[in-house]
Design a protein that fits this description.
mainly alpha; five-stranded mixed beta sheet; 31 helices; 7 strands; globular
């Protein structure tokens, strides 16, 4: 039995990984071996983090929550022992994120030779081993437990296939997958860039000049810094972070599955887990260094805390409202989970914290409100490192929010206005319900709401199936009516928050996948009563293929080298970080024997090659319009569109005279300027750009007053006159015609920032 349960999923995983890593460019034999090597080396480090989190979660469960006298969960039964680990993961992850963030805020992750960086994980590993030995080594084995080919064989095999897909996507170098995220724009502009800059600056988490996103709580980015330090390489560490996101997806699916078992019985467990794991949005955010899945994990975990103690092993047999009010221990646990969700992604206040408030009131009664002071106190304690460092740096603990209450800090009122416009609704209130339809219920169907926006079904049929299942239970099943009402209330609050306070993008609704997965499980159970033999194949046919199809069509973007045909080669950049850093171009140039070969190599070289290899070590570079410097191995001054950088200040001092900006920049110590006209044009069209930096107003004059020495990826590298020419290298950068770079048309729609 054990061999079948382990060997078959392992075989399915390897076969699926071999298949999906063969989807690459013509002539490539496949990327199976690099993917497997990356999974072992980089994925192994991420696995250590999640195993440590499981240990911390089990300890909190054993010493804190169960010390409150909660009714047993039947955890002595063999079928429940390992699901207890799944239930503990959200609490452990919340604790580990919070501890890491606090240590990083104090600059301790790099202290004592990095010992403190490893210590929380090591403690979690120790606790896990001890608890497994003490609690899992004995106890009755329920051999009569419900079993079937579906639960014992098919569901684990499908989960293994999906896990292989996640592993292949997570092995891809950042900036290739995914089209909906413009190659992971947010990852290389701040989710990964911030940890890189914190490490370079000495290891303390805090505000970074020119990057307003460093003012956010950054719980996940702190963990990314921890993982990068564990890996010992910034570029390779990015893959560890992507595997961490994969772990977050698997943990969220497992916690949601356990929640479904709690409220709907064991038969609902595999349906809910597979439905969530097969959601394309989960695949996208679960294979990029993003923070989106952490709030989903904490929502599922907090809901589990709310449901526990309802009486009996199966909450289906419990009343719709728990038999006793929430105690202080469970309230503190909820506060930790909600605060960690907000610390991971501030919009989780709308999508996790407020929905949890509705769920706990509907499931435990309004008496829980008496514990509000405790919940607020715990949440403030968890978030205090962020609040304190922002107060010290900006005079505003919530910067860049609430400036009307706490003050503007270093920003102008105009900057706050632009930031709010870029991160808030850009449609009239009356138009937002229709946009909700296209971004959620019917996402990817019909024409895209914005021209050039990547458009394919990232939600599949989950919203329809989930809502239908919840509404049917609300109308007809008295035992589950309370759960269905709580799920629908959570969804309604999230949708309202999305329409009123976000920039109306589909990905922000991802936390609704947790209650929707419960609804889909309810619907499948209802169908199984009449047509049980076909339910499992139907679920597999409707949900499982979609993420494979989404991956198969990637990256589905138009590139300058292929203006007529989108390139679809999702596995092409597994093991491809060297192409992004310019190392491959530098190596090929060193081996080239003719000028034609060198010219061909330079024509395809990325911007990072010129920054990392072609310019002299003494060069000091200012990037304007280039907000994704993750692959630059040397310091580059840059800023987001919301911040104001060196060129903004120079333009303010000498408005309307771009020919005079070069000497002023040289006086500040800069020798070169990297200009991305395409991105500046996009920011200008969106209304975010400083008007003085509108491309047509300054780039042509500035380039002519100085000297363009190279172009790459549509960007221009300009040597400031009269700075010395760059030192010679393996091959000189190609000469650029400024006019062609200045008039290059955008190849993709402008990325939308996240918050």
């Amino acid at each position: 039995m054990l061999l079948r349960r382990v060997a078959l999923p392992a075989a399915i995983f390897l076969v699926t990984l071999a298949i999906v890593t063969s989807w690459t460019i013509p002539g490539d034999a496949g990327r199976f071996a690099p993917a497997l090597a990356s999974l072992g080396q980089n994925g192994g480090i991420a696995l250590l983090w999640w195993v440590g989190a499981a240990g911390l979660g089990l300890w909190i469960d054993r010493r804190w929550l169960r010390a409150g006298g909660e009714a047993g969960d039947g955890l002595g039964e063999a079928r429940e022992r390992w699901w207890r680990v799944a239930a503990a993961l959200p609490m452990g992850a919340a604790a580990l994120l919070s501890i890491t963030h606090a240590l990083g805020s104090l600059g301790l992750l790099t202290a004592a030779g990095g010992v403190l960086n490893w210590l929380p994980i090591a403690v979690g590993l120790y606790l896990l081993v001890r608890i497994l030995r003490d609690d899992f080594g004995a106890g009755p084995v329920d051999r009569a437990a419900e079993a079937s080919v579906w639960t014992d064989t098919v569901a684990p095999a499908l989960a293994a296939a999906l896990a292989a897909l996640y592993a292949a996507a997570a092995a891809s170098a950042p900036e290739w997958l995914w089209s909906s995220e413009f190659g992971g724009y947010d990852a290389v502009s701040y989710h990964l860039e911030l940890p890189k800059e914190w490490i370079t600056a000495g290891g303390a988490i805090g505000p970074v000049e020119g990057n307003v996103y460093s003012a956010l709580p950054s719980f996940v980015e702190a963990t990314f810094m921890q993982l990068i330090l564990m890996r010992g390489s910034i570029v390779e560490g990015a893959l560890v972070c992507q595997y961490w996101a994969m772990g977050a997806a698997l943990a969220t699916a497992a916690a949601t599955a356990q929640l479904a078992a709690r409220v709907a019985g064991d038969a609902a467990r595999p349906i809910a887990g597979l439905v969530l794991l097969s959601l394309p949005w989960a695949l996208v955010t679960g294979s990029l260094a993003y923070n989106d899945l952490a709030p989903c994990l904490f929502l599922a975990g907090a809901w589990l805390v709310i449901e526990r103690g309802a009486g009996g092993h199966d909450a289906v047999d419990a009343p719709s409202r728990a038999s006793r009010p929430l105690d202080m221990r469970h309230a503190a646990a909820l506060a930790l989970l909600a605060a960690a969700a907000v610390g991971a992604k501030p919009t989780a206040f709308l999508f996790v914290a407020l929905p949890l408030l509705a769920i706990v009131i509907l499931r435990r009664g309004a008496r829980v409100l008496r514990l509000a002071p405790l919940v607020v106190a715990v949440a403030l304690a968890v978030l205090s490192p962020w609040l304190v460092r922002n107060l010290v740096a900006y005079g505003n603990p919530l910067f860049p929010f609430a400036h009307g209450v706490f003050g503007n800090g270093p920003w102008t009122t105009e900057q706050f206005t632009v930031f709010a416009a870029g991160h808030g609704p850009d449609r009239a209130l009356a138009d937002r319900p229709a946009l909700l339809w296209s971004q959620w219920l019917a996402h990817g169907l019909g024409a895209p709401p914005a021209q050039g926006e990547p458009w394919f079904p990232q939600w599949g049929i989950l919203p329809i199936a989930g809502l239908l299942g919840l509404l049917l239970e609300l109308a007809s099943d008295a035992r589950r009516r309370g759960v269905a009402a709580a799920a629908l209330a959570a969804i309604a609050i999230a949708l309202l928050g999305w329409m009123l306070a976000t920039h109306l993008k589909s990905r922000f609704l991802l936390p609704t996948a947790v209650p929707l997965a419960l609804g889909a499980a309810f619907l499948a159970q209802r169908a199984a009563r009449a047509t049980q033999p076909v339910v499992a194949p139907l679920v597999a046919a409707l949900f499982i293929p979609l993420p494979f199809l989404v991956y198969w069509r990637e990256p589905a973007r138009v590139f300058p080298s292929q203006p007529d045909t989108p390139l679809a080669a999702p596995a092409a950049f597994i093991g491809g970080a060297g192409f992004r850093t310019g190392e491959v171009a530098a190596r090929d140039l060193a081996m080239a024997s003719t000028n034609d070969e060198r010219a061909a190599i330079l024509a395809q070289a990325p911007t990072a090659y010129f920054i990392n290899f072609a310019l002299s070590k003494e060069a000091r570079i200012l990037a304007v319009g280039h907000a994704t410097p993750f692959y630059f191995a040397r310091p580059v001054a840059w800023n987001t569109v919301w911040d104001r950088g060196a060129l903004d200040r120079v333009a303010d001092e000498a408005p309307g005279t771009p020919e005079a900006w070069g000497p002023r920049l040289a006086a500040l110590g800069f020798t070169h300027v990297l200009i991305n006209p395409t991105m500046l044009a996009r920011w200008q069209a969106s209304g975010w750009l400083n008007p003085q930096l509108a491309p047509e107003r300054w780039i042509g004059v500035f380039v002519r007053a100085n000297r363009a020495i190279a172009t790459a990826d549509g960007s221009i590298i300009v040597e400031i006159a009269p700075a010395p020419a760059p030192a010679s290298s393996a091959a000189a950068p190609r000469e650029a015609a400024p006019s062609s770079a200045e008039t290059e048309a955008p190849q993709e729609a402008a990325p939308r920032p996240t918050s």
